[in-house]
Amino acid sequence: MRAVAILGIGQTPVDEHWDKSIRVLAGEAVFAALRDAGRERADGLFVGNMLSGLLNRQENLGALIADWVGLRGTEALKIEAACGSGAAAFRAGLIAVGSGEMESALVVGIEKMTETVGPQTTAALATAADADWEAAQGLSFVAINALIMRRYLHEYGWRHTDFAPFSINAHTNATHNPNARLQESISLKDYEKARMVADPINLLDASPIGDGAAAMFLVPAETLHRNGHPLITVAGSASATDSIAVHDRHDPLWLSAAADSAQKAYAQAGLTPADIDLFELHDAFSIMAALSLEACGFAERGQGPRLGLDQQIHPTGRVPIATRGGLKARGHPVGATGVYQLVEVVEQLRGDAGATQVPDAQIGMAQNIGGSGATILTHILRAQ
Amino acid sequence: MRAVAILGIGQTPVDEHWDKSIRVLAGEAVFAALRDAGRERADGLFVGNMLSGLLNRQENLGALIADWVGLRGTEALKIEAACGSGAAAFRAGLIAVGSGEMESALVVGIEKMTETVGPQTTAALATAADADWEAAQGLSFVAINALIMRRYLHEYGWRHTDFAPFSINAHTNATHNPNARLQESISLKDYEKARMVADPINLLDASPIGDGAAAMFLVPAETLHRNGHPLITVAGSASATDSIAVHDRHDPLWLSAAADSAQKAYAQAGLTPADIDLFELHDAFSIMAALSLEACGFAERGQGPRLGLDQQIHPTGRVPIATRGGLKARGHPVGATGVYQLVEVVEQLRGDAGATQVPDAQIGMAQNIGGSGATILTHILRAQ
């Protein structure tokens, strides 16, 4: 494959967008990415979305959004990989441009989740789990993660409060991100006193859902006419899977699909974890932040929380994560999240991350998880 | 992109598979394709599916099916483009192998639709239409097609009975296909007396839904070790879109996305319609058969029914269509249909189509439609 560059990015605030339909919301991000890229058309549109059928009674999003953004006729489709849909759509667009099949591609992650009532949304999210062996037993998504976190606390001897730095860091960073859902900092006391959701996961361990869309414009690097931004290319891209049902795994505390996809991406880029300047990880729950850091080689097994306790995860730390708020505070519009992460990495590599800018950021990684570790995509971007 | 060949195919009967879960049904087709290809593993799994979230409460099908078929860890994702999901998944797999990103790919189209009650299934299918401007007005999918057919009859002066040959041909061919849902022939009298569904579409204009899965194994043509079958390569592949809402089109009787994608596929293959030995078209409703034949250059505008009336569409005719029963009689498990069509083209190019074999079939085309013409994919396969 030829090298692919990211020419434009766009995003909407993650919020409750009750006044905007799914196509309008997606359109806002797409138009922003087109403006940023200085383009008007693309050869293909790749939509990352998980729940439009269940929550918005709308499928065929590819054609729907292509038409709305003025690209009627253009090839378009929707990619679904649960909460990993956004990065999966990005990877499909990347391969299409890298293969030479297209000279440009738009990728948009879109999810609209706040118009339905809570139980309906919770049931919809449970479709990311194993319908026959998990959801049918009444396990919600947060309950599955609670089981994993409980086991982790037991296995490695951490206390619940040791996970506080993940949430505090994410919220602090989000106060500087105008697109974040929760632009408010939290204290250790807030974290410890937060309402329990599914023991041991409390409200401040869990990311908020939301409505949002994020978009990127991809072109072959070789043909890039720079538009005033640094040239940002995709140095590594990989996807891997694991069993959906957590009980079916060899080790429920090891994200093998994170490790596999990260190793592939490192190898493609010729890098090691020490070379990564920032890491936008999938902190849907604080336990997932720890497991991702371990699987990707930033911490020893069972030692993920140590990075937070040692103050290494903030923007000037050794392993900056959730630099724009992460899922925890930027918010988690599920099928859009993977594209938000990549957009945020681009913001960092362009030096546009403001108060949470990682100094001299040259190489950024994003990891997007579908299900409780079932589908995991890792991407490494590089500024040149 | 490098050339890609189809090394293996597999399919289940289209039926009511109440005893098989979605992963089991998909697995049957995948295992058959692996056996046919003489392989055990693939580098990627591309799942075409539309309704698993709404009807089966299961998303994340990529990881689910990969694990079930013994490919835990392998990259996998789901592609959705309404009833065009199957061919869209095929095209994604094609690009992944063609790009060099993978050395092999499995494509599986899967849909399981018969365990839910009729109104729920009808409402789910309506998510392929425009939720805000069509479905919200109470328009079902068959109603939209009925409006198109009514307009066609008015515009070009055909009688309803002139569409009978499409259904009769499909049913006749299906009597020789053990995987077809309706293995029974029908007469002109049956067609004319069939119960009305949405005037002018009667029961024998409409394809039956069903449960089914079809799969293919793709490899680079250059590395192919033949397995006793003719070498079958992808000579053309293209996808195009149109507005989802039919009232928004310049001409509701012209499938512009069919014309656009067919023209691109012809150009890639260096062929014209006269070179196509058989055409598996998307006869979800008989009116769609006529419109596809016109958009793809097999008939003049408004003259699609003439091909049937002149007895040109049966397997030894000038333009053989629905040679294994088509959507009308093989059945239409929506997200699987596009892969069934391609599997059937391969059967023809291998000379394995039995009583409905098209003589000396060397070049076959398949066209898969998502929505009432909103997303259309055209593929041309060639035996070498």
Topology:
2 copies of one chain form a homodimer.
Chain A: E1 4-11, H1 22-37, E2 44-48, H2 52-56, H3 61-68, E3 75-80, H4 85-98, E4 105-111, H5 118-125, H6 141-156, H7 164-174, H8 188-193, E5 196-198, E6 201-202, E7 212-220, E8 232-241, H9 256-269, E9 278-280, H10 286-295, H11 304-309, H12 326-330, H13 334-350, E10 363-370, E11 375-383
Parallel strand pairs in A: 2-3, 2-4, 9-10
Antiparallel strand pairs in A: 1-7, 4-7, 5-6, 8-11, 10-11
Structure description:
2 copies of one chain form a homodimer. Chain A is α/β, with parallel strands linked by helices and 384 residues long. In chain A, 35% of the residues lie in helices and 18% in strands. Chain A contains 13 helices and 11 strands. Chain A has helices spanning 22-37, 52-56, 61-68, 85-98, 118-125, 141-156, 164-174, 188-193, 256-269, 286-295, 304-309, 326-330, 334-350, and strands at residues 4-11, 44-48, 75-80, 105-111, 196-198, 201-202, 212-220, 232-241, 278-280, 363-370, 375-383. In chain A, strands 1-7-4-2-3 form a 5-stranded mixed β-sheet, with helices on both faces. Chain A has a 4-stranded mixed β-sheet with strand order 8-11-10-9, sandwiched between helices. In chain A, a hairpin with a 2-residue loop joins strand 5 (196-198) and strand 6. In chain A, helix 1 crosses helix 3 and helix 4 packs across helix 13 (334-350). The radius of gyration of chain A is 19 Å and the shape is globular. Chain A starts with a strand and ends with a strand. The mean pLDDT of chain A is 97. Strand 3 of chain A pairs antiparallel with strand 3 of chain B, so a sheet runs across the interface.
